[in-house]
Amino acid sequence: MRWYKQYLELYGKGIDEYPQDLIEHIKKLFYLAQSPVPVVSVVMIAYNEEKRILASLWSLANNRSIYPFEIIVVDNNSTDSTADVLKMAGIPFYSQPLKGPGHARNKGLEHAKGKYILCIDSDTLYPPGYIETMVKALDKRGVSGVYGLWSYIPDKHFPRHKMFFYELLRDIHLVLLSFKSPERCVRGMVFAHRADLAREIGYKTNIKRGEDGYLAYRLKDYGRLRMILSLNARPYTSTATIASDGSFVKALVSRIKIALKGVSKYFFKTKGDIKDQESNLL
After folding, report:
1. Is the pTM of this model over 0.85?
2. With b meaning 16 or more CB within 10 Å and e meaning fewer, what string describes 214-250?
3. d(Cα 173, Cα 81) in Å, to the nearest integer?
């Protein structure tokens, strides 16, 4: 059985569908996982993730790491029952009324106690060795940030055999891109960095997406960005972003076109300030 399948008991279900004994189990796991003196702060941001956030937290609480860690949740002004789910499970969280992933991540950074920050998305399930694998790579001289690859939770519209092919092409694209433009490979659900540098730089707050890539770009001034290929650092996430393009074929063609646009990014480093498109500005 794939490691993530146990979490599908909660993934995609509403607050009224949670088994009470499982809620109590997660409460206990969460309490035992939290360290009062963490080396690592696992910072999750959430916006309208009532049906997926508890499964994600369950997977994180099941992590075992040689590095003491804390789990911080930031609710980015959700309009669904995300906050109610967190209260039900006894999970402390911070509220950020200013909308946008940059604002939410800065709020988490403000309260984090750890030397290192693991950025977490609340619709994503993490393998049991995720925290330790990411931090072990980050805790090296000359490294300012690390990032990984990810897979998708298969469903009837995006079955495993199709997603394997999609992920293979995507991984090749990202590995090639990582040599000259690693910041273009970074996604917030698989990104870790030093807390002190992030506080000095700050997450960009005037954009809808890309706050992670912006920080990664700036972190290159302080050290190397390293890609982690280990399966221990490969989480599974929702197919929602792919499904927004329609069918599997449409999603695949759309992303191939994007990858081939501006082929120079495979051969030359990004220089100067990164300008965001008007459609990405808040």
Report:
1. yes
2. bbbbbbbebbebbbbeeebbbbbbbbeebbeeeebee
3. 37
Half-sphere exposure of 270 (CA within 13 A, CB side): 19
> Mind listing the pLDDT tens digit for each residue in 95-151?
999 999 999 999 999 999 999 999 999 999 999 999 999 999 999 999 999 999 999
Tokens of 35: 């360290």
What does the chain look like in DSSP terms, one character per residue?
Answer: --GGGGGGGTTT--GGG--HHHHHHHHHHHHHHB-SS-SEEEEEEESS-TTTHHHHHHHHHT---SS-EEEEEEE-S-SSSHHHHHHHTT---EE--S-SHHHHHHHHHHH--SSEEEEEETTEE--TTHHHHHHHHHSSTTEEEEEE--EE---SSS-HHHHHHHHHHHHHHHHHHHTT-GGGG--GGGEEEEHHHHHHH----SBSS-HHHHHHHHHTTTSEEEEE--GGG--EE-SHHHHTT-SHHHHHHHHHHHHHTTGGGGTS---SPPPPPGGGB-
**Residue 235 CB contacts under 8 Å (≥ 6 apart), including other chains:** 59, 124, 125, 126, 127, 130, 148, 150, 151, 189, 190
